[in-house]
Amino acid sequence: QVQLVESGGGLVQPGGSLRLSCVASGGFFSIYTMAWYRQAPGKQREWVASITSDGSTNYVDFVKGRFTISRDNGKSTVYLQMNSLKPEDTAVYYCNRLGAPFSWGQGTQVTVSS
Predict the structure, then answer these.
(1) How far is it, in rounded angstroms, from Cα 62 to Cα 41?
(2) Residue 83 and residue 57: Cα distance in Å, rounded?
(3) Edge-to-edge order in the sheet of strand 91-97
(4) What is the pLDDT of residues 10-60, one digit of tens each?
(5) What Rg value do the Cα atoms of the chain yield, rounded?
(6) What is the spatial distance between Cα 60 and Cα 46, in angstroms, rounded to a whole number?
(7) How far is CA 32 from the centre of its chain?
(8) Considering 45, 46, 56, 96, which has the largest number of Cβ atoms within 10 A of its Cβ?
(9) How many angstroms separate the most distant Cα atoms in the chain?
């Protein structure tokens, strides 16, 4: 059973940056397409970005040019670099396998506020 642990969230001012990390234990991380998702208060969880095993990336339109997903297969870790943060980016951020999710981790809270 794969376990996912997200970290790196916090409180940041608009225009600021954060780097999220997600460490996966168990399974075969290097072959999975991994994704970041987020859930804002009162809203459904939504897909933000994904990265295939060979490093191809995709992003939802509203983060393109601001967020960058990457991975380190040797460390079983996927990252989300978030720049030019906006208040509407405030949410709990989660990582998981795209399309066939494992049990969800606890997520990491990102709050963008002045």
Answers:
(1) 18
(2) 17
(3) 10-12, 108-112, 91-97, 34-39, 46-51, 57-59
(4) 999 999 999 999 999 988 999 999 999 999 999 999 999 999 999 999 999
(5) 13
(6) 9
(7) 14
(8) 96
(9) 41
